[in-house]
Design brief:
The complex is a heterodimer.
Chain A (H helix, E strand, L loop, with lengths): L1 H13 L16 H25 L3 H4 L13 H6 L9 H30 L6 H12 L4 H14 L5 H24 L4 H9 L4 H30 L2 H6 L7 H5 L10 H21 L1 H8 L6
Helix pairs in contact in A: 2-13, 5-8, 5-10, 6-8, 8-10, 9-10, 10-13, 10-14
Chain B lengths: L16 H8 L4 H13 L3 H22 L1 E2 L9 E2 L3 H8 L1 H32 L6 H9 L6 H12 L6 H12 L10 H4 L1 H26 L3 H9 L4 H29 L3 H6 L9 H10 L4 H34 L2
Antiparallel strand pairs in B: 1-2
Helix pairs in contact in B: 3-15, 4-15, 5-10, 5-12, 7-10, 10-12, 11-12, 12-15, 14-15
Classes of the chains: A mainly alpha, B mainly alpha.
Protein backbone atom coordinates (compact mmCIF):
# COMPACT_ATOMS: atom_id res chain seq x y z
CA UNK A 1 0.00 0.00 0.00
CA UNK A 2 2.59 2.49 1.10
CA UNK A 3 4.97 1.56 -1.71
CA UNK A 4 2.12 2.11 -4.13
CA UNK A 5 1.57 5.66 -2.84
CA UNK A 6 5.27 6.36 -2.92
CA UNK A 7 5.61 5.36 -6.54
CA UNK A 8 2.63 7.53 -7.39
CA UNK A 9 4.30 10.46 -5.66
CA UNK A 10 7.53 9.72 -7.49
CA UNK A 11 5.70 9.57 -10.80
CA UNK A 12 4.06 12.92 -10.13
CA UNK A 13 7.22 14.67 -9.08
CA UNK A 14 9.00 13.27 -12.10
CA UNK A 15 6.78 15.36 -14.30
CA UNK A 16 8.34 18.46 -12.80
CA UNK A 17 7.46 21.09 -10.25
CA UNK A 18 4.70 22.59 -12.41
CA UNK A 19 2.53 19.67 -11.38
CA UNK A 20 2.56 20.82 -7.78
CA UNK A 21 0.74 24.07 -8.57
CA UNK A 22 -2.56 24.38 -6.80
CA UNK A 23 -4.13 26.05 -9.81
CA UNK A 24 -3.97 24.84 -13.35
CA UNK A 25 -3.37 27.92 -15.51
CA UNK A 26 -5.57 28.67 -18.48
CA UNK A 27 -4.75 26.41 -21.37
CA UNK A 28 -2.24 27.73 -23.87
CA UNK A 29 -4.66 27.36 -26.75
CA UNK A 30 -3.90 28.90 -30.10
CA UNK A 31 -0.35 30.24 -30.61
CA UNK A 32 -1.96 33.47 -31.85
CA UNK A 33 -2.58 34.42 -28.19
CA UNK A 34 1.13 34.20 -27.47
CA UNK A 35 1.93 36.31 -30.52
CA UNK A 36 -0.67 38.89 -29.47
CA UNK A 37 0.83 39.05 -25.98
CA UNK A 38 4.31 39.60 -27.42
CA UNK A 39 2.99 42.32 -29.75
CA UNK A 40 1.33 44.17 -26.86
CA UNK A 41 4.42 43.81 -24.68
CA UNK A 42 6.64 45.19 -27.43
CA UNK A 43 4.25 48.08 -28.03
CA UNK A 44 4.38 49.07 -24.37
CA UNK A 45 8.13 48.74 -24.03
CA UNK A 46 8.80 50.50 -27.37
CA UNK A 47 8.92 54.05 -25.89
CA UNK A 48 11.41 52.83 -23.26
CA UNK A 49 13.60 51.17 -25.91
CA UNK A 50 13.31 54.28 -28.10
CA UNK A 51 14.42 56.40 -25.13
CA UNK A 52 17.39 54.10 -24.51
CA UNK A 53 18.43 53.99 -28.18
CA UNK A 54 18.03 57.74 -28.73
CA UNK A 55 20.09 58.49 -25.63
CA UNK A 56 23.04 56.86 -27.44
CA UNK A 57 22.52 58.76 -30.71
CA UNK A 58 24.01 62.06 -31.79
CA UNK A 59 21.60 65.01 -31.71
CA UNK A 60 21.46 65.07 -35.53
CA UNK A 61 20.52 61.38 -35.72
CA UNK A 62 18.02 61.77 -32.88
CA UNK A 63 15.96 64.33 -34.80
CA UNK A 64 15.20 62.57 -38.05
CA UNK A 65 11.82 61.53 -39.39
CA UNK A 66 11.46 58.54 -39.59
CA UNK A 67 13.86 57.74 -36.68
CA UNK A 68 17.38 56.61 -37.67
CA UNK A 69 17.29 53.30 -35.84
CA UNK A 70 20.67 52.10 -37.08
CA UNK A 71 22.61 55.34 -36.63
CA UNK A 72 26.05 55.00 -34.96
CA UNK A 73 26.04 55.00 -31.19
CA UNK A 74 27.71 57.73 -29.13
CA UNK A 75 27.89 58.89 -25.52
CA UNK A 76 27.49 62.56 -26.48
CA UNK A 77 24.00 62.77 -24.98
CA UNK A 78 25.29 61.55 -21.61
CA UNK A 79 28.31 63.86 -21.81
CA UNK A 80 26.01 66.82 -22.48
CA UNK A 81 23.75 65.79 -19.59
CA UNK A 82 26.63 65.53 -17.14
CA UNK A 83 27.59 69.09 -17.89
CA UNK A 84 30.21 68.98 -20.61
CA UNK A 85 29.87 72.24 -22.51
CA UNK A 86 29.18 74.46 -19.54
CA UNK A 87 25.69 73.30 -18.55
CA UNK A 88 24.72 72.85 -14.91
CA UNK A 89 25.86 69.58 -13.40
CA UNK A 90 23.19 67.06 -12.35
CA UNK A 91 25.26 65.62 -9.49
CA UNK A 92 23.91 67.78 -6.63
CA UNK A 93 20.26 66.99 -7.55
CA UNK A 94 21.07 63.29 -7.93
CA UNK A 95 22.78 63.26 -4.53
CA UNK A 96 19.84 65.17 -3.02
CA UNK A 97 17.41 62.61 -4.43
CA UNK A 98 19.52 59.76 -3.11
CA UNK A 99 19.72 61.39 0.33
CA UNK A 100 16.00 62.10 0.52
CA UNK A 101 15.00 58.63 -0.73
CA UNK A 102 17.43 56.58 1.36
CA UNK A 103 17.04 58.52 4.61
CA UNK A 104 13.24 58.65 4.37
CA UNK A 105 13.12 54.93 3.60
CA UNK A 106 15.24 54.18 6.67
CA UNK A 107 13.06 56.42 8.82
CA UNK A 108 9.94 54.75 7.42
CA UNK A 109 11.28 51.32 8.41
CA UNK A 110 12.19 52.47 11.92
CA UNK A 111 8.61 53.67 12.41
CA UNK A 112 6.71 51.09 10.36
CA UNK A 113 8.22 47.81 11.54
CA UNK A 114 7.33 48.26 15.24
CA UNK A 115 3.92 49.64 14.25
CA UNK A 116 3.25 46.64 12.01
CA UNK A 117 4.33 44.38 14.89
CA UNK A 118 1.73 46.06 17.10
CA UNK A 119 -0.89 45.53 14.39
CA UNK A 120 -0.26 41.87 13.65
CA UNK A 121 1.84 39.79 16.03
CA UNK A 122 0.86 41.39 19.33
CA UNK A 123 -2.17 43.34 18.13
CA UNK A 124 -3.49 46.28 20.09
CA UNK A 125 -7.24 46.42 20.57
CA UNK A 126 -9.09 47.98 17.60
CA UNK A 127 -6.05 47.29 15.43
CA UNK A 128 -8.10 47.26 12.21
CA UNK A 129 -9.32 50.81 12.92
CA UNK A 130 -5.72 51.97 13.33
CA UNK A 131 -4.73 50.21 10.13
CA UNK A 132 -7.50 51.89 8.17
CA UNK A 133 -6.62 55.26 9.69
CA UNK A 134 -3.13 54.90 8.19
CA UNK A 135 -4.65 54.02 4.84
CA UNK A 136 -7.05 56.96 4.86
CA UNK A 137 -4.18 59.44 5.24
CA UNK A 138 -2.82 58.11 1.95
CA UNK A 139 -5.98 59.33 0.27
CA UNK A 140 -5.36 62.93 1.33
CA UNK A 141 -4.03 64.66 -1.81
CA UNK A 142 -0.64 66.29 -1.38
CA UNK A 143 -1.95 69.62 -2.71
CA UNK A 144 -4.25 69.79 0.32
CA UNK A 145 -1.35 70.30 2.71
CA UNK A 146 1.10 72.01 0.40
CA UNK A 147 0.52 75.60 1.43
CA UNK A 148 0.76 75.20 5.23
CA UNK A 149 3.88 73.11 4.70
CA UNK A 150 5.35 75.90 2.59
CA UNK A 151 4.49 78.56 5.17
CA UNK A 152 5.83 76.37 7.98
CA UNK A 153 9.07 75.79 6.08
CA UNK A 154 9.42 79.48 5.30
CA UNK A 155 8.92 80.55 8.90
CA UNK A 156 11.26 77.95 10.37
CA UNK A 157 13.98 78.40 7.78
CA UNK A 158 13.52 74.86 6.45
CA UNK A 159 12.76 76.00 2.92
CA UNK A 160 15.20 74.47 0.44
CA UNK A 161 16.41 72.05 3.12
CA UNK A 162 16.68 68.38 2.23
CA UNK A 163 15.81 67.30 5.80
CA UNK A 164 12.30 68.66 5.39
CA UNK A 165 11.83 66.48 2.30
CA UNK A 166 13.12 63.48 4.25
CA UNK A 167 10.40 64.03 6.87
CA UNK A 168 7.65 64.63 4.30
CA UNK A 169 8.58 61.59 2.20
CA UNK A 170 8.52 59.57 5.43
CA UNK A 171 4.95 60.65 6.12
CA UNK A 172 4.03 60.04 2.46
CA UNK A 173 5.28 56.44 2.53
CA UNK A 174 4.60 55.42 6.11
CA UNK A 175 0.99 54.23 5.50
CA UNK A 176 2.08 52.06 2.57
CA UNK A 177 4.91 50.62 4.62
CA UNK A 178 2.70 49.90 7.64
CA UNK A 179 0.18 48.09 5.42
CA UNK A 180 2.82 46.13 3.56
CA UNK A 181 4.77 45.17 6.68
CA UNK A 182 1.58 44.14 8.44
CA UNK A 183 0.63 41.80 5.63
CA UNK A 184 4.11 40.23 5.79
CA UNK A 185 4.19 39.96 9.58
CA UNK A 186 0.69 38.42 9.54
CA UNK A 187 2.41 35.36 8.07
CA UNK A 188 4.67 34.90 11.08
CA UNK A 189 3.69 31.63 12.75
CA UNK A 190 2.41 32.86 16.11
CA UNK A 191 2.22 29.31 17.50
CA UNK A 192 5.94 28.95 16.91
CA UNK A 193 6.53 32.19 18.77
CA UNK A 194 4.47 30.98 21.69
CA UNK A 195 6.30 27.69 21.73
CA UNK A 196 9.63 29.50 21.69
CA UNK A 197 8.44 31.69 24.53
CA UNK A 198 7.41 28.69 26.61
CA UNK A 199 10.83 27.25 25.91
CA UNK A 200 12.20 30.33 27.65
CA UNK A 201 13.52 32.09 24.55
CA UNK A 202 14.09 35.80 25.06
CA UNK A 203 12.56 38.47 22.86
CA UNK A 204 15.75 38.92 20.86
CA UNK A 205 16.16 35.20 20.18
CA UNK A 206 12.54 34.95 19.18
CA UNK A 207 12.70 37.93 16.84
CA UNK A 208 15.84 36.54 15.25
CA UNK A 209 14.78 32.95 14.81
CA UNK A 210 11.03 33.17 14.17
CA UNK A 211 10.14 36.70 13.02
CA UNK A 212 13.19 37.68 10.96
CA UNK A 213 12.98 34.90 8.32
CA UNK A 214 9.48 36.08 7.37
CA UNK A 215 10.03 39.78 7.96
CA UNK A 216 13.31 40.36 6.13
CA UNK A 217 12.02 39.72 2.58
CA UNK A 218 9.07 41.95 3.47
CA UNK A 219 11.38 44.69 4.73
CA UNK A 220 13.37 44.48 1.49
CA UNK A 221 10.28 44.77 -0.70
CA UNK A 222 8.84 47.60 1.40
CA UNK A 223 12.12 49.54 1.23
CA UNK A 224 12.27 49.26 -2.55
CA UNK A 225 8.70 50.52 -2.97
CA UNK A 226 9.26 53.45 -0.58
CA UNK A 227 12.50 54.28 -2.36
CA UNK A 228 10.69 54.37 -5.73
CA UNK A 229 7.91 56.67 -4.49
CA UNK A 230 10.37 59.09 -2.85
CA UNK A 231 12.65 59.15 -5.87
CA UNK A 232 9.72 59.90 -8.20
CA UNK A 233 8.14 62.70 -6.16
CA UNK A 234 7.95 66.12 -7.85
CA UNK A 235 5.23 68.36 -6.38
CA UNK A 236 6.63 68.67 -2.83
CA UNK A 237 10.21 68.94 -4.05
CA UNK A 238 9.30 71.56 -6.64
CA UNK A 239 7.42 73.64 -4.03
CA UNK A 240 9.73 73.32 -1.05
CA UNK A 241 13.21 73.20 -2.53
CA UNK A 242 15.25 75.48 -4.72
CA UNK A 243 18.83 75.64 -5.87
CA UNK A 244 20.36 73.92 -2.85
CA UNK A 245 18.10 70.97 -2.06
CA UNK A 246 16.46 70.48 -5.49
CA UNK A 247 16.02 66.80 -6.37
CA UNK A 248 16.54 64.97 -9.66
CA UNK A 249 12.89 65.33 -10.82
CA UNK A 250 13.10 69.09 -10.13
CA UNK A 251 16.30 69.21 -12.19
CA UNK A 252 14.50 67.37 -15.01
CA UNK A 253 11.78 70.03 -15.17
CA UNK A 254 14.38 72.38 -16.68
CA UNK A 255 14.13 70.22 -19.82
CA UNK A 256 10.42 70.95 -20.23
CA UNK A 257 10.90 73.65 -22.85
CA UNK A 258 12.99 72.66 -25.84
CA UNK A 259 16.05 74.60 -26.88
CA UNK A 260 16.89 73.42 -30.41
CA UNK A 261 18.34 69.97 -30.94
CA UNK A 262 18.47 68.22 -27.60
CA UNK A 263 16.41 65.03 -27.75
CA UNK A 264 19.44 62.76 -27.19
CA UNK A 265 20.32 64.74 -24.09
CA UNK A 266 16.73 64.59 -22.78
CA UNK A 267 16.68 60.82 -23.32
CA UNK A 268 20.06 60.44 -21.59
CA UNK A 269 18.72 62.47 -18.65
CA UNK A 270 15.54 60.38 -18.49
CA UNK A 271 17.56 57.13 -18.60
CA UNK A 272 19.99 58.21 -15.86
CA UNK A 273 17.24 59.40 -13.54
CA UNK A 274 14.97 56.41 -14.18
CA UNK A 275 17.74 53.85 -13.76
CA UNK A 276 17.51 53.51 -9.95
CA UNK A 277 13.73 53.07 -10.18
CA UNK A 278 14.00 50.50 -12.97
CA UNK A 279 16.56 48.52 -10.95
CA UNK A 280 14.53 48.74 -7.71
CA UNK A 281 11.28 47.96 -9.54
CA UNK A 282 12.54 44.88 -11.31
CA UNK A 283 14.13 43.70 -8.06
CA UNK A 284 10.80 44.08 -6.25
CA UNK A 285 8.78 42.75 -9.20
CA UNK A 286 7.10 39.98 -7.24
CA UNK A 287 6.03 42.29 -4.43
CA UNK A 288 5.21 45.26 -6.65
CA UNK A 289 1.47 44.56 -6.73
CA UNK A 290 1.33 44.13 -3.00
CA UNK A 291 2.97 47.49 -2.48
CA UNK A 292 0.96 49.35 -5.08
CA UNK A 293 -2.33 48.00 -3.78
CA UNK A 294 -1.25 48.93 -0.23
CA UNK A 295 -0.98 45.27 0.66
CA UNK A 296 -4.57 44.46 -0.32
CA UNK A 297 -3.57 42.15 -3.17
CA UNK A 298 -0.85 39.53 -2.94
CA UNK B 1 16.44 27.28 23.38
CA UNK B 2 15.24 23.67 23.32
CA UNK B 3 17.51 22.95 26.28
CA UNK B 4 15.21 25.07 28.40
CA UNK B 5 12.16 23.06 27.34
CA UNK B 6 11.84 20.55 30.18
CA UNK B 7 12.55 23.27 32.73
CA UNK B 8 11.71 22.75 36.35
CA UNK B 9 7.95 22.26 36.66
CA UNK B 10 6.79 25.37 38.47
CA UNK B 11 3.40 25.57 40.10
CA UNK B 12 1.79 27.28 37.11
CA UNK B 13 2.79 24.67 34.55
CA UNK B 14 1.03 21.90 36.49
CA UNK B 15 -2.31 23.64 36.01
CA UNK B 16 -4.56 23.48 32.98
CA UNK B 17 -5.10 26.81 31.18
CA UNK B 18 -8.55 27.23 32.75
CA UNK B 19 -7.24 26.63 36.24
CA UNK B 20 -4.46 29.08 35.59
CA UNK B 21 -6.86 31.87 34.68
CA UNK B 22 -9.05 31.33 37.70
CA UNK B 23 -5.94 31.11 39.82
CA UNK B 24 -4.64 34.47 38.56
CA UNK B 25 -7.86 36.43 38.47
CA UNK B 26 -7.99 37.48 42.14
CA UNK B 27 -4.56 39.12 41.83
CA UNK B 28 -5.68 42.22 39.89
CA UNK B 29 -6.17 40.73 36.43
CA UNK B 30 -7.71 43.98 35.23
CA UNK B 31 -4.63 45.98 36.16
CA UNK B 32 -2.42 43.45 34.40
CA UNK B 33 -4.61 43.64 31.28
CA UNK B 34 -4.27 47.40 31.26
CA UNK B 35 -0.52 47.17 31.61
CA UNK B 36 -0.37 44.59 28.81
CA UNK B 37 -2.54 46.81 26.56
CA UNK B 38 -0.26 49.75 27.22
CA UNK B 39 2.81 47.66 26.49
CA UNK B 40 1.31 46.56 23.18
CA UNK B 41 0.58 50.16 22.18
CA UNK B 42 4.15 51.40 22.67
CA UNK B 43 5.60 50.20 19.33
CA UNK B 44 2.64 51.70 17.50
CA UNK B 45 2.77 55.19 18.99
CA UNK B 46 5.77 56.76 17.19
CA UNK B 47 4.32 55.94 13.76
CA UNK B 48 0.83 57.04 14.76
CA UNK B 49 1.90 60.35 16.28
CA UNK B 50 4.20 61.11 13.36
CA UNK B 51 1.44 60.40 10.83
CA UNK B 52 -1.10 62.55 12.65
CA UNK B 53 1.37 65.44 12.98
CA UNK B 54 2.57 65.28 9.38
CA UNK B 55 -0.76 64.75 7.60
CA UNK B 56 -3.62 66.01 9.75
CA UNK B 57 -2.09 69.26 11.06
CA UNK B 58 -1.24 70.72 7.62
CA UNK B 59 -4.71 69.84 6.40
CA UNK B 60 -6.33 71.56 9.38
CA UNK B 61 -4.22 74.63 8.63
CA UNK B 62 -5.38 74.49 5.01
CA UNK B 63 -8.99 74.54 6.17
CA UNK B 64 -8.34 77.58 8.36
CA UNK B 65 -6.48 79.47 5.60
CA UNK B 66 -9.25 78.64 3.12
CA UNK B 67 -11.55 80.99 5.09
CA UNK B 68 -8.99 83.81 4.98
CA UNK B 69 -8.06 86.58 2.63
CA UNK B 70 -4.39 85.68 2.51
CA UNK B 71 -2.46 87.02 -0.46
CA UNK B 72 1.31 87.12 -0.19
CA UNK B 73 1.42 90.28 -2.29
CA UNK B 74 -1.05 92.14 -0.03
CA UNK B 75 0.12 91.34 3.51
CA UNK B 76 -1.82 94.35 4.88
CA UNK B 77 -5.16 92.75 4.00
CA UNK B 78 -4.74 89.39 5.70
CA UNK B 79 -7.87 88.44 7.66
CA UNK B 80 -10.89 86.20 7.75
CA UNK B 81 -13.39 86.56 4.91
CA UNK B 82 -15.82 83.72 5.48
CA UNK B 83 -16.84 81.79 2.41
CA UNK B 84 -15.45 84.25 -0.19
CA UNK B 85 -12.79 81.86 -1.45
CA UNK B 86 -15.30 79.04 -1.84
CA UNK B 87 -17.66 81.33 -3.76
CA UNK B 88 -14.74 82.06 -6.07
CA UNK B 89 -13.90 78.37 -6.46
CA UNK B 90 -17.43 77.64 -7.65
CA UNK B 91 -18.00 80.77 -9.79
CA UNK B 92 -14.61 81.39 -11.40
CA UNK B 93 -14.80 79.83 -14.90
CA UNK B 94 -11.08 78.96 -14.93
CA UNK B 95 -11.45 76.91 -11.79
CA UNK B 96 -14.71 75.35 -12.98
CA UNK B 97 -12.94 74.32 -16.17
CA UNK B 98 -10.13 72.75 -14.22
CA UNK B 99 -12.68 70.70 -12.28
CA UNK B 100 -14.12 69.46 -15.59
CA UNK B 101 -10.62 68.77 -16.94
CA UNK B 102 -9.75 66.80 -13.81
CA UNK B 103 -12.87 64.64 -14.12
CA UNK B 104 -12.36 64.07 -17.86
CA UNK B 105 -8.67 63.28 -17.50
CA UNK B 106 -9.12 60.95 -14.53
CA UNK B 107 -12.12 59.10 -15.95
CA UNK B 108 -10.56 58.62 -19.39
CA UNK B 109 -7.20 57.42 -18.12
CA UNK B 110 -8.71 55.12 -15.49
CA UNK B 111 -11.26 53.53 -17.83
CA UNK B 112 -8.91 53.07 -20.79
CA UNK B 113 -6.05 51.70 -18.70
CA UNK B 114 -8.46 49.43 -16.82
CA UNK B 115 -9.85 47.95 -20.06
CA UNK B 116 -6.38 47.57 -21.59
CA UNK B 117 -5.00 46.22 -18.31
CA UNK B 118 -7.73 43.58 -18.10
CA UNK B 119 -7.23 42.49 -21.71
CA UNK B 120 -3.46 42.22 -21.26
CA UNK B 121 -3.83 40.42 -17.92
CA UNK B 122 -6.08 37.86 -19.64
CA UNK B 123 -3.42 37.40 -22.34
CA UNK B 124 -0.64 37.02 -19.79
CA UNK B 125 -2.66 34.52 -17.75
CA UNK B 126 -2.25 32.03 -20.60
CA UNK B 127 0.77 29.84 -21.05
CA UNK B 128 3.06 30.88 -23.88
CA UNK B 129 6.74 31.04 -24.71
CA UNK B 130 8.45 33.95 -22.94
CA UNK B 131 5.61 34.86 -20.61
CA UNK B 132 7.99 36.17 -17.97
CA UNK B 133 9.78 38.34 -20.53
CA UNK B 134 6.52 39.90 -21.74
CA UNK B 135 5.45 40.57 -18.14
CA UNK B 136 8.74 42.33 -17.46
CA UNK B 137 8.37 44.37 -20.67
CA UNK B 138 4.86 45.38 -19.60
CA UNK B 139 6.05 46.64 -16.21
CA UNK B 140 8.77 48.90 -17.69
CA UNK B 141 6.53 51.95 -18.41
CA UNK B 142 5.51 52.10 -14.76
CA UNK B 143 9.18 52.17 -13.72
CA UNK B 144 10.11 55.27 -15.70
CA UNK B 145 10.18 58.27 -13.34
CA UNK B 146 6.94 60.21 -14.08
CA UNK B 147 8.77 63.45 -14.91
CA UNK B 148 11.08 61.56 -17.26
CA UNK B 149 8.09 59.81 -18.86
CA UNK B 150 6.38 63.16 -19.44
CA UNK B 151 9.56 64.57 -21.04
CA UNK B 152 9.93 61.44 -23.17
CA UNK B 153 6.37 61.75 -24.46
CA UNK B 154 6.61 65.48 -25.02
CA UNK B 155 9.93 65.58 -26.86
CA UNK B 156 10.52 62.01 -28.01
CA UNK B 157 7.19 60.36 -28.80
CA UNK B 158 4.79 63.17 -29.74
CA UNK B 159 7.09 65.81 -31.21
CA UNK B 160 5.53 66.73 -34.54
CA UNK B 161 8.87 66.98 -36.36
CA UNK B 162 10.87 63.94 -35.26
CA UNK B 163 8.77 62.15 -32.63
CA UNK B 164 8.35 58.38 -32.67
CA UNK B 165 4.64 58.41 -33.53
CA UNK B 166 4.95 60.70 -36.53
CA UNK B 167 8.14 58.89 -37.53
CA UNK B 168 6.29 55.58 -37.61
CA UNK B 169 3.48 57.23 -39.61
CA UNK B 170 6.05 58.46 -42.17
CA UNK B 171 7.60 55.01 -42.34
CA UNK B 172 4.29 53.17 -42.75
CA UNK B 173 3.07 55.61 -45.40
CA UNK B 174 6.35 55.29 -47.31
CA UNK B 175 5.89 51.50 -47.35
CA UNK B 176 2.81 52.13 -49.45
CA UNK B 177 4.67 54.60 -51.67
CA UNK B 178 3.12 57.73 -50.20
CA UNK B 179 5.26 60.74 -49.28
CA UNK B 180 2.47 62.73 -47.63
CA UNK B 181 1.84 60.95 -44.32
CA UNK B 182 -0.40 62.59 -41.71
CA UNK B 183 1.81 64.50 -39.25
CA UNK B 184 -0.42 65.77 -36.45
CA UNK B 185 0.96 68.44 -34.13
CA UNK B 186 -0.08 66.36 -31.12
CA UNK B 187 0.59 68.69 -28.21
CA UNK B 188 -1.11 71.77 -29.65
CA UNK B 189 -3.88 70.06 -31.67
CA UNK B 190 -4.79 67.40 -29.09
CA UNK B 191 -3.24 68.58 -25.81
CA UNK B 192 -5.50 66.66 -23.44
CA UNK B 193 -5.33 63.51 -25.57
CA UNK B 194 -1.53 63.73 -25.51
CA UNK B 195 -1.48 63.82 -21.72
CA UNK B 196 -4.04 61.03 -21.55
CA UNK B 197 -1.96 58.83 -23.86
CA UNK B 198 1.16 59.24 -21.74
CA UNK B 199 -0.78 58.51 -18.53
CA UNK B 200 -2.54 55.48 -20.02
CA UNK B 201 0.86 54.16 -21.06
CA UNK B 202 2.13 54.54 -17.48
CA UNK B 203 -0.96 53.25 -15.66
CA UNK B 204 -1.98 50.26 -17.79
CA UNK B 205 0.85 48.17 -16.25
CA UNK B 206 -0.47 49.03 -12.77
CA UNK B 207 -3.97 47.82 -13.66
CA UNK B 208 -2.53 44.80 -15.44
CA UNK B 209 -0.53 43.77 -12.35
CA UNK B 210 -3.52 44.01 -10.00
CA UNK B 211 -5.79 42.10 -12.39
CA UNK B 212 -3.17 39.47 -13.12
CA UNK B 213 -2.85 38.89 -9.37
CA UNK B 214 -6.65 38.58 -9.28
CA UNK B 215 -6.70 36.08 -12.13
CA UNK B 216 -3.99 33.99 -10.52
CA UNK B 217 -5.90 33.77 -7.27
CA UNK B 218 -8.88 32.35 -9.17
CA UNK B 219 -9.69 28.80 -8.11
CA UNK B 220 -8.66 26.57 -11.03
CA UNK B 221 -10.85 23.62 -10.07
CA UNK B 222 -14.07 25.61 -10.56
CA UNK B 223 -13.00 26.48 -14.10
CA UNK B 224 -12.09 22.87 -14.77
CA UNK B 225 -15.43 21.65 -13.43
CA UNK B 226 -17.26 24.16 -15.61
CA UNK B 227 -15.28 23.05 -18.64
CA UNK B 228 -16.15 19.41 -17.90
CA UNK B 229 -19.78 20.44 -17.78
CA UNK B 230 -19.38 21.81 -21.29
CA UNK B 231 -19.09 25.53 -20.60
CA UNK B 232 -17.52 27.52 -23.42
CA UNK B 233 -14.70 30.06 -23.04
CA UNK B 234 -17.11 33.00 -23.12
CA UNK B 235 -19.40 31.42 -20.54
CA UNK B 236 -16.44 30.72 -18.26
CA UNK B 237 -15.34 34.34 -18.57
CA UNK B 238 -18.83 35.75 -18.11
CA UNK B 239 -19.96 33.62 -15.15
CA UNK B 240 -16.73 32.66 -13.35
CA UNK B 241 -13.76 34.85 -14.27
CA UNK B 242 -15.55 38.20 -14.42
CA UNK B 243 -17.43 37.94 -11.10
CA UNK B 244 -14.17 36.87 -9.45
CA UNK B 245 -12.33 39.82 -11.04
CA UNK B 246 -14.95 42.39 -10.10
CA UNK B 247 -13.41 43.40 -6.83
CA UNK B 248 -9.95 43.60 -8.37
CA UNK B 249 -11.39 45.83 -11.09
CA UNK B 250 -12.92 48.04 -8.42
CA UNK B 251 -9.68 48.19 -6.48
CA UNK B 252 -7.64 49.04 -9.57
CA UNK B 253 -10.14 51.66 -10.66
CA UNK B 254 -10.35 53.32 -7.27
CA UNK B 255 -6.65 53.32 -6.45
CA UNK B 256 -5.94 54.48 -10.01
CA UNK B 257 -8.46 57.32 -9.58
CA UNK B 258 -6.87 58.44 -6.34
CA UNK B 259 -3.42 58.56 -7.91
CA UNK B 260 -4.50 60.08 -11.25
CA UNK B 261 -6.70 62.79 -9.68
CA UNK B 262 -3.40 63.99 -8.23
CA UNK B 263 -1.54 63.83 -11.56
CA UNK B 264 0.67 66.91 -11.60
CA UNK B 265 3.92 65.93 -13.28
CA UNK B 266 2.62 65.26 -16.78
CA UNK B 267 0.42 68.39 -16.93
CA UNK B 268 3.24 70.53 -15.56
CA UNK B 269 5.80 69.18 -18.05
CA UNK B 270 3.80 68.55 -21.21
CA UNK B 271 1.59 71.65 -21.47
CA UNK B 272 2.24 73.70 -18.32
CA UNK B 273 -1.51 73.81 -17.87
CA UNK B 274 -2.09 75.59 -21.19
CA UNK B 275 -4.75 74.79 -23.83
CA UNK B 276 -7.38 73.66 -21.36
CA UNK B 277 -5.27 70.96 -19.73
CA UNK B 278 -4.95 72.56 -16.28
CA UNK B 279 -6.35 70.06 -13.79
CA UNK B 280 -7.01 70.86 -10.13
CA UNK B 281 -3.57 69.98 -8.74
CA UNK B 282 -1.97 72.17 -11.40
CA UNK B 283 -4.47 75.00 -10.75
CA UNK B 284 -3.86 74.85 -7.00
CA UNK B 285 -0.13 74.97 -7.68
CA UNK B 286 -0.51 77.93 -10.07
CA UNK B 287 -2.84 79.86 -7.73
CA UNK B 288 -0.42 79.33 -4.93
CA UNK B 289 2.86 79.90 -6.78
CA UNK B 290 2.05 82.39 -9.51
CA UNK B 291 -0.90 84.37 -8.14
CA UNK B 292 0.26 83.81 -4.55
CA UNK B 293 -3.38 83.83 -3.43
CA UNK B 294 -3.00 81.48 -0.48
CA UNK B 295 -6.62 81.66 0.69
CA UNK B 296 -8.01 80.73 -2.73
CA UNK B 297 -5.43 77.98 -3.23
CA UNK B 298 -6.41 76.49 0.13
CA UNK B 299 -10.11 76.55 -0.74
CA UNK B 300 -9.28 74.70 -3.99
CA UNK B 301 -7.26 72.21 -1.99
CA UNK B 302 -10.20 71.57 0.33
CA UNK B 303 -12.47 70.99 -2.67
CA UNK B 304 -9.97 68.46 -4.08
CA UNK B 305 -10.00 66.67 -0.74
CA UNK B 306 -13.81 66.50 -0.65
CA UNK B 307 -13.78 64.99 -4.15
CA UNK B 308 -11.12 62.50 -3.11
CA UNK B 309 -13.00 61.53 0.04
CA UNK B 310 -15.95 60.49 -2.11
CA UNK B 311 -13.77 58.13 -4.16
CA UNK B 312 -11.80 57.07 -1.09
CA UNK B 313 -14.92 55.96 0.78
CA UNK B 314 -15.59 53.41 -1.93
CA UNK B 315 -11.90 52.48 -2.14
CA UNK B 316 -11.73 51.83 1.60
CA UNK B 317 -14.78 49.60 1.38
CA UNK B 318 -13.21 47.54 -1.42
CA UNK B 319 -9.89 47.25 0.38
CA UNK B 320 -11.62 46.18 3.56
CA UNK B 321 -13.66 43.50 1.77
CA UNK B 322 -10.47 42.03 0.29
CA UNK B 323 -8.88 42.45 3.70
CA UNK B 324 -11.68 40.56 5.49
CA UNK B 325 -11.33 37.75 3.00
CA UNK B 326 -7.62 37.54 3.70
CA UNK B 327 -7.91 37.49 7.48
CA UNK B 328 -10.91 35.18 7.26
CA UNK B 329 -13.46 37.33 9.04
Amino acid sequence: MSTHTNSAVAATSFKGPARKKRRTPEQGGHPAWGIAAWAVGLLFVAPVLFMLLTSFHSETDASTNPPSVFAPLTLDGYRAFFGAGGGTTPWPPLINSLTASVLSTLLVLVLAVPAAYALSIKPVSKWTDVLFFFLSTKFLPIVAGLLPLFLFAKNTGLLDNINLLVLLYTSMNLPIAVWMMRSFLAEVPVEMMEAAQLDGAGLVTMLRSVVAPVALPGIAATSLICFIFSWNELLLARTLTGTVAGTAPVFLTSFATSQGLFLAQVCAAAVVISLPVLVAGFAAQDKLVQGLSLGAVK
Amino acid sequence: MSTAAPAAPGPASELTPEQRTTYQRPQGQAARDRREARRRRIPLLPALIFTIAATQLPFLATIVISFMDYRALRPDQIGFTGLDNYVQVFTNPTIRNSVITTILLTATVVLVSLVLGTAIALLLDRKFLGRGAVRTMMIAPFLVVPVAAALLWKHGILNSGYGLVNGVLTWVWSLFGSDSPPQPVWLSDHPLLSIEMSLVWQWTPFMMLILLAGLQSKPGDVVEAARMDGAGSWQIFRYITFPHLRRYLELGGLLGSIYIVQAFDSVFIMTAGALGTANLPYTVYATFFQQQDYGLASAQGVVVVIGTIIIATFALRTVSSLFDEETGR
